[in-house]
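Protocol step 4 of 6: structure prediction from sequence.
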Amino acid sequence: MVRLGGRAACAARCGVVALGILVALGRPAGARPAVWAMVPANNDGAGFRALFDQPDQWVQARARIDTLGYADHWLATQFNDAELRRYFAQVAAWHLKLGLEIGAIKVWGKTADRSFMLGRKNWDRFIADGAQISAFAMDEPLRVTLRVLHESPQYAVEETAKFVAMVRRTYPWIQIGDIEGFPGASDDELLPFIDALQARLRAMGVRGLDFFRLDVDWMWFRTRTARGAVGWAGVRHMEEACHRRGLPFSLIYWAADYPSLERQGLATDETWEQGIMYEGRAYQDVGGVPDQYVIQSWVNAPAQTLPDDQPGTFMRSVLDFTATFVK
């Protein structure tokens, strides 16, 4: 995401990607919002394995979610085909959907053609193993373009549009959205990007984004005066701007204070849940109601994924959060 000391920096430091629990994108009036939850993929995917090896330990949390997901490259490297076939069959038996977080513009895939070629190898393998992929979430094409590749916003628009077009053509049933960071990227950067990307896709005769996801480093609101002035009202502004554009708004909930507390030796497993509950209250207080609630960890916490009836586990945090904020 586009922010200092946030997701991108932590992932580079910790080698962490995330498991995702995704839901149907968008919602009819009066329907329950979607819920994504993403546990860390450290320890060679131990948290993901636990979901399938101990299914009786997260029955309550599973009832709160709709789609199970994972970052595609970790799914490809941490599990063999026999494991994936079993996992995908269980996902279907649970009546859950499968979503993947993917790269569209990356250092290893600076163009849409390159990223799509590399990603397709994994996606086709998953499909052959029985996966019914529901959604792709592109990991920060704008941030990577501007902050890593030092290319122009126009480059981000053109390559992202090409990538989306290839996905639409090859996997027309899969929904696709964008993830970007905030407030490391401001609405003055994000909204023009969204508008230009949607316009370019229309010009290409391609359906636009299915959702836009904001990854908020809320520690900025506490520690950076200039950025802090934006605050949660700025997040709410992004939600409203997406809705004016007919675009479902998705928000990541994570313990943004965990890395700093961990450096001070103050972080515990309960710190994770306290962080996401804080964010839930803070955004609710400004009237925010995202179309997707995304509970996601890339900070190696909590240490345990299960069971969902034990305080301090990831699935307990999913259960508590959804019971409190997802109406």
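Step 5 (inspection) to follow. The CA atoms of residues 113 and 163 lie 7 Å apart.
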